[in-house]
Design brief:
The protein is an alpha/beta fold. Helix content is about 45%, strand content about 20%. The structure holds nicotinamide-adenine-dinucleotide, the ligand O=C(O)C(=O)C[C@@H](O)[C@H](O)[C@H](O)COP(=O)(O)O and zinc ion. One of its GO terms (cellular component) is cytoplasm. GO terms for molecular function: 3-dehydroquinate synthase activity; metal ion binding; nucleotide binding.
Length: about 350
């Protein structure tokens, strides 16, 4: 049984299917596949586990595949180009569909390839990590990294559908599950205090992959993300709230070298740093910040930045951020738990103090 949510974007609206056993079921693909030809893009870890199931579901189509190397360090222009090599080698025309089978890295790269191939072809997201099911497969942000900054080259391109089979989470490494929980926590911090309290009392079930707890977390996360994206698809306002923890987090990922930190781990630390800065601005009290750190830590995630990333290096890396406007950094901070805002009014000495702060 699948639960269906909708991302309301007028003509570009699409369903998010969430449930068990969806990945091999042709019914979830058929209404959305365009043309006779399908290119499945996946990676060398996911392919041996799930590629055959997706191929079986798409047996009515002419299927091709491209298997990318696995890792954030391969979310590059060079590796991305392999998708075009495959499409062109096999003479794919516009009447085709790309399928992104994997986590957020595969999803972002495939979506961006779909945005660009022959100026745009359709694609479907089949997310297989918790992070991809709660966040990256929804909303149409696609892209690749540049050595100077995360996701610096990309496009908004919405999928035709998101097929999130919760059974796929059974094969996920525990630290990848935790990384996904960082983005789940984000939704509570920015918009939904009761959801945060629910996570507090269900963290053990989530970490044990209890299907009912995970199902609820995925559904609530997608509801919140779909609502924000429907309000502000191209991030001219509210959508930036989804970047909580990301200004600091992306700096950690780029600074340490892509693939050293998982995206979710870096976002977890970034969220604690955003809470720290929010306290310095007088918005959160010590108890709130402690609650943020406790929640993050209880999800199996780190709370403090790497010791070797100096405040000066942080500032340099953070100046390459898509939220920078007219040379001014903007931050997603917490007015209260469950209530985030975007602001550029942060005194430099307070920011510096947060960047220099390390737990003993
Ligand atoms: N577009 C967006 O809105 C958005 C949102 C959040 C994150 N992101 C991006 O997503 C990426 C992170 O995504 P991620 O956390 O899914 O990482 P990932 O794609 O690297 O996947 C994590 C690991 O799990 C493996 N894997 C995937 N599915 C599996 C399964 N079912 N069983 C076993 N192993 C499996 C992958 O091969 C990889 O090794 C980052 O590049 C981040 O910038 C994008
Ligand atoms: O969908 C969004 O909007 C988000 O910000 C979701 C984030 O979790 C995600 O990591 C996104 O890729 C970051 O956006 P970016 O514009 O800072 O690259
Ligand atoms: Zn993210």
């Amino acid at each position: 049984m699948a639960q269906t949510l909708n991302v309301d974007l007028g003509l570009r609206s699409y369903p998010i299917y969430i449930g068990s056993g969806l990945i091999a079921d042709p019914e979830f693909y058929r209404p959305h596949v365009r043309g006779e030809r399908v290119m499945i893009v996946t990676n060398e870890t996911v392919a041996p586990i799930y590629l055959d199931s997706v191929k079986a579901a798409l047996a009515d189509y002419h299927i091709s595949e491209v298997v990318l190397p696995d890792g954030e360090q391969y979310k590059t222009l060079e590796v991305w180009n392999r998708i075009f090599d495959a499409l062109l080698h096999e003479r794919f025309a516009r009447d085709c569909t790309l399928i992104a089978l994997g986590g957020g890295v595969v999803g972002d790269m495939t979506g961006f390839a779909a945005a660009c191939y022959q100026r745009g072809v359709p694609f479907i997201q089949v997310p297989t990590t918790l992070l991809a099911q709660v966040d990256s497969s929804v909303g149409g942000k696609t892209g690749i990294n540049h050595p100077a900054g995360k996701n610096m080259i990309g496009a908004f391109h919405q999928p035709l559908a998101v097929i999130a089979d919760t059974d796929t989470l059974e094969t996920l490494a525990q630290k990848e599950l935790s990384a996904g929980l960082a983005e789940v926590l984000k939704y509570g911090f920015i918009r939904d205090l009761p959801f945060l309290a629910w996570m507090e009392s269900h963290m053990a079930e989530l970490l044990a992959r209890d299907p009912s707890a995970l199902g609820h977390a995925i559904k609530r996360s997608c509801e919140i993300k779909a609502a924000i994206v429907a309000e502000d698809e191209l991030e001219s306002g509210q959508r930036a709230l989804l970047n909580l923890g990301h200004t600091f987090g992306h700096a950690i990922e780029a600074g340490a070298g892509y693939g050293t930190w998982l995206h979710g781990e870096a976002v977890a630390v970034g969220t604690c740093m955003a809470a720290n800065l929010s306290q310095r601005l007088g918005w959160l009290d010590e108890g709130d910040v402690e609650r943020v750190r406790r929640l993050v830590s209880s999800a199996g995630l780190p709370t403090d930045p790497p010791a070797d990333l100096s405040p000066e290096r942080f500032l340099d890396l953070m100046s390459v951020d898509k939220k920078v406007l007219s040379g001014k950094m903007r931050f997603v901070l917490l007015k209260a738990l469950g209530d985030a805002i975007v602001t550029s009014y942060v005194e430099p000495d307070l920011l510096y103090a947060t960047l220099a702060d390390r737990c003993p």
